[in-house]
Amino acid sequence: MQQPVTDAPEDEPQTGDADAVLRELLGYHIKRAQSAIQADLNAALKPLDLRMLTFSALAVVASSPGLRQAQLADALSIERPNLVVILDELERRGLILRDRVPTDRRAYALKATLEGRRLFEAAQAAVRAHEAALFTGISPEDQVRLREMMQRIWRAGEGARE
Amino acid sequence: MQQPVTDAPEDEPQTGDADAVLRELLGYHIKRAQSAIQADLNAALKPLDLRMLTFSALAVVASSPGLRQAQLADALSIERPNLVVILDELERRGLILRDRVPTDRRAYALKATLEGRRLFEAAQAAVRAHEAALFTGISPEDQVRLREMMQRIWRAGEGARE
DNA sequence: TATTGTTATACTCTATAACTATA
DNA sequence: TATAGTTATAGAGTATAACAATA
Fold this sequence. Notes:
DNA-binding, disordered N terminus, globular
């Protein structure tokens, strides 16, 4: 069962094989897939003038009204300062409101406007279509396995960070 | 078998549930896992003064000597201009060389120095340890499945980009 | 004293146009 | 003309320190 490995000389590496060292790493494949997902998601959100981050923020605010910015930043796994510009943009576009919390005048209670909720609904449909398209090749059972594996990796990373 | 779902009132969302909308998306879990992987990988490479990108570039150059910059950029899936600073850094540190190609004086043939190959070996060991640590919770068979799924997603993204 | 949101800042990664020197 | 590497530049995401207002 001898396989003719390749015709090319060893010292002239083929372009398509140059990433062979990297392809041995699981993280390489996960990164490539994640890049593809992000690109496709942003393309799907572009007609709505949203990006992954602005969509995520709008989605969380729309479905969990009353959150404070610190809580939202936590839910999005981003730092508080980085959330400010995102909310500035969503607020400027009339998609969310920063309501003062009466009991704690330092904080804002975030909520989506009617327009924000409508845009969220449209965006969610676009995102679901995007996921359906990108994950067609993966059976529902495998998608469940995949989600579990991703959660395990994330938890392992959490553990390593302490 | 009734489960007491939660004690909290509905209109005061719990912090831990704020990302419920996002957790329905497979892409959300993949992104979180990828972030964890990148953070852990960079932490593993930090003692060697490498990052994911500089490691990847060094790895490809070390194992495929003679590549041109355009080919390397292609292997790394980055744009040619963005590769320049990375190679500048690796060259300045004496890890790689840019050798003129005699037959095409526009191009450089990239190769790792002895020191570059040594650092690559050390880095590869660190990266393997990092992957072993992060992926302990995933059986070898599942890791194979995972890789296949990532490749499928990436190809679906490629198809969507045309 | 501690916390909320904010400003300022910096670093990394990414993407595009335009230049130079060669081909 | 076209290509290889480069420069300049801009956008997006991420991270930290420090501030004013409030608790």
